[in-house]
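Hi V.,

You were right to ask for the full record rather than a summary. Here it is.
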Amino acid sequence: MKDVFLSHATQDKELFVRPFSRILEEENVSFWLDEAEIKWGDKISAQINKGLNTSRFIVVFITPAFIGRNWTETELSAALSRENDEGRTVVLPIITGDPNSLLRNYPMLRDKRYRQWTDGPKAIAGDLKRLVQESERRSNERLKSLVHDRWSGKRRVAETLTDIIKQPASDISDFARLELGLHEFARLGPSASHQSISELRDASIDHSVVRRGLGTLVSMCLIAQGNLLQADNVFGDAMREEVKIEQQRHYVALQEGLVYVALGRHGDAGKAWRTMSGSQPRFDEQIYPFGAATWDYARALLAVVASDRPVEKIISSISPQKYRGIAHLTAKTGRFMRRSKIILDQIEEWSNEEGWAARHSRRTLSGRLHSFEKDVLSVSGSLFGVLKF
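Predicted structure:
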């Protein structure tokens, strides 16, 4: 999903569109621009329709060259139709000449507030960035509400995925997709959630951490099915996604470590899990609504595996009542470890090689994981009969 679709006449590309796109890059605002998005052999109309439907906003450069051209008129008509269907602002006009003269051709734009190129492209880009951030904040608030309803029993669990998928593609933030994928894994387990997580992964996603996280979850589903070769291929693609922001790396570090363990790559697993050591990073709840809780629960599960602390004391250091969804996700991840012969075999081998977790025999570790799962669920409360552990 892109933040902005840049609708324009080809003649305006050099003078207006490319300079504006360079400023958007500086502002970290993603954009859909035909010359970057349409590849050799692509169906042009299909790619443009996808961009129009999945971008959060559509910026339209109204210029003399724009007026009367079939392609630009079709894009504008589609954008206005989508705005009407969604009941929110989608179309953002930029006027590059005399407004009275240019808007005479577009009566539906006359009562919209527009920006003029003479306002300065940097100022326009700054305002656009603020609109994108506010839109993403609302998306995350909607997600938090839906997830809270799901785990508190206010809605039927099966409705939530449908609710989010029915929303306009442009209004589902990438992080909402990752949160949803994690919760589907928690609700359904690795086998039953495989299809829905794969569908989330197949969407147009800009953020590398989301592509990486959903790829990791698909890999776990494949491992649960015993398909290690395919899991290795999917995971390899996922790990090529570079994640530079520290807070984002922690979202799926626990799951990444588990996939590395299953694939016998102990050193890489250790590196992934070491990102969970040290002090907790600061999580902006508007951007990472479940970041702090995800960190705490991942640390708790790793402590079950790698330390001598009693499981009851580890459980008492987290808050399952407040974050029931994350609690169930971590419990389900522990169950995934306990029930995976592949992972238990690899941890046992790793222990023998490195002395890591050597204090636990395989049987003891399995018992500790079972206690963790059971205790987390007993404290957080069962999921109104939907999950049967």
